[in-house]
Amino acid sequence: MAIESSCDETSAAVSNKGKILANVIAGQKVHEAYGGVVPELASRAHQQNIIPVVDQALKEANVAKNDLQAVAFTNGPGLMGSLLVGTSFAKSFALALGIPIIEVNHMQAHILALFASREDEGVEYPEFPFLCLTVSGGHTQIVKVHDHLEMEVLGQTLDDAAGEAFDKIAKILGLPYPGGPLIDKMAVKGDPARFKFPVTRLSGLNFSFSGLKTAVLYFIQKQLSIDPEFIDKNLADLCASVQHTIVESLVIKLIEAAESEGIEHIGIAGGVSANSGLRSRLQAEAKGRGWKLFIPPFEFCTDNAAMIAVTGYYKYLNKQFSTQDSAPFARFSGMK
Ligand code: KG4
Ligand code: ZN
User: Fold this and answer.
1) I need a surface site. Which of 41, 58, 178, 181 has the fewest CB within 10 A?
2) What are the chain's domains?
3) Which atom of ligand 1 is nearest to the CA of 177?
4) Is the pLDDT of residue 295 over 90?
5) pLDDT at position 130, please?
């Protein structure tokens, strides 16, 4: 059994030797009206959702509680109140069943979503070492993956994450939270070259997205003072141009990393890996550069417990169990 509760998705998955039997995800609509996740409301929603979600996962997997061998759970990074619900549930559930618990790092799990599958055979996985661009609402990293549980962060954002940039810019454009998928949808109908926004280029493999957010904010304020209907009239082109800029910022650094490391197996993971602009741009780059590109199925891109189950499985093989004094952590401090 695997539990994920780091942000605003309550999820439970059941796996058998790493193969996913069930992956139930309950989203939280309550945040839409606020333009972002409200931590207090997220914790309460996890508390309401956790048992029904676990029950549903067991039912879908057709597995009895007593047949479970271990409980894996996200212990960070994430929102402390949200993590506490999943952690406390996992500890008491395992204690009641007399089975071990396994702590899982949420960022490591996003990458191991590349190894999540509902099939036994016919699935291709990246070869080690490979590079993974992990792009979510809270993090943006380029990671060199040496092995399932041995990962090295080569670069990361120094301010906003890519998903955060999507969501904050969507808010400026008057779109509800989470804005990333909405920008993606609108962008399909727009011209990505219509508006030019800055791509911040730092030295090395780090990213920065706060400059883009500010540039869009000032540009929109100026245009609205000239024409109050500017956003409505140009929404598709604005979304396409913003998406193009974010994708460009990500892909430039990924190419740099692939060239300097001499690695051709490339993966993407995290919520923003669901973005159609990023997927098609990377597919084109892969074709031109001879990369082998790996993208998780949509259900394993945004927060889900299947990725926790896969990570838990590799830790189970290594007997990396935790004790009942396990406590969650909020901030990323390495792939442990
Ligand atoms: O990985 P995730 O579910 O949660 C975190 O760990 O943060 O990522 C959520 C982020 C949000 O910022 C959301 O707007 C973004 O992923 N996202 C997208 C798309 N789908 C989800 N951003 C752009 N295009 C999408 N299609
Ligand atoms: Zn995530």
Assistant:
1) 41
2) 2-116+300-317 (3.30.420.40), 130-295 (3.30.420.40)
3) 14
4) yes
5) 98
